[in-house]
Structure formats: C-alpha cells, structure tokens
Design brief:
The chain is α/β, with parallel strands linked by helices. It contains 7 helices and 5 strands, in the order E-H-H-E-H-E-H-E-H-E-H-H. The protein has a 5-stranded parallel sheet with strand order 3-2-1-4-5, sandwiched between helices. Helix 1 runs parallel beside helix 3. The relative contact order is 0.17.
Length: about 150
C-alpha cells in the first residue's frame, strides 16, 4: 500500500447499501478500513451508522435511503461534493424507492463519477493508483444544455 501520510488528495466517498447488502459492504469496508480512514466518508443513515460503529472512523451520515438519503447523495454528486459512489444494491429485491435508486445511479453517470455496485468493482476502484492523486475526472460541460432555448 502506498504511504498516505502526506501528499495525497482526500477523496469524498459515498457508501450506500440496500438492507440485504449491508453485511457485504460492512465486510468490504472493514477490509479497506485503513484506506477509507484516509478519505472523507458519506453514507446513507443506517449504513453510515454501521460503518462508523464497526470501523471507528467518522462518517457524514445522511437520511436513510428510502427517506431521502439516496437523493441527498445525488444532490452532493451534482454539487461536486462526492468523488465516487460505492453502492451495493440488491438486484434480487424490488425496493419501494427504486425510482430514487435509479435517479442516484443516473446522476452519477451525468456527472461522470466512478460507481462500484459490488465488491469486485469496489476493489478495483479503491485499489486504483488514482485514489491517491488529484482528481483526473473530466467534468462534463453542460453550458449549452443549460443555456438552450426552450419553446413554451
């Protein structure tokens, strides 16, 4: 592991997990505790509480996903406050807030941030040398979209 005592850029990482995936995310987070402790962690309510208690690292906790936490994470992505999203979602269960989940994944794509949806993809993202460098993400230019003429 690279020496992270100085000269690295802290990333802002959002962690989200559906109920049946919280155990997987917690195990992954424990395994990556040292790396995660070097960055700023944001999480939806229950997930954030579990991570903070188990790992003993500070977590900025938002609302529970179904109560608006997914949308809060999405808003932070749109404002440039999140560098990447790790979202262990359950492909086998339909959630009452599925539209919020889809919106969160969509906004991550709109703003070109990395998204990991399972343990393998999360391992690839967090083990990348880019984790320790100044952000190289190309931010989309939506000026033409925002200034377009709209007929009413």
């Amino acid at each position: 592991m690279k020496d992270v005592s100085f000269g690295y850029e802290r990333k802002k990482i959002a962690l989200v997990a559906h109920d049946f995936k919280k155990k997987d995310l917690l195990e992954w987070a424990k395994y990556n505790r040292v790396t995660l402790s070097c960055h700023d962690i944001y999480a939806t309510g229950t997930t954030g509480t579990m991570i903070e208690q188990e790992l003993g690292i500070p977590v900025t906790k938002l609302k529970s996903g179904p109560l608006g936490g997914d949308q809060q994470i999405g808003a932070k992505i749109a404002e440039g406050e999140i560098d990447f999203l790790i979202f262990f979602w359950d492909p086998m269960s339909q959630m009452p807030h599925d539209p919020d989940v889809k919106a969160l994944l969509r906004i991550a794509m709109v703003w070109n941030i990395p998204v990991a949806c399972n343990r393998v993809s999360a391992d690839y993202v967090i083990s990348s040398p880019l984790m320790w460098e100044k952000s190289t993400r190309l931010k989309p230019d939506y000026e033409k979209y925002e200034t377009r003429d709209v007929e009413v």
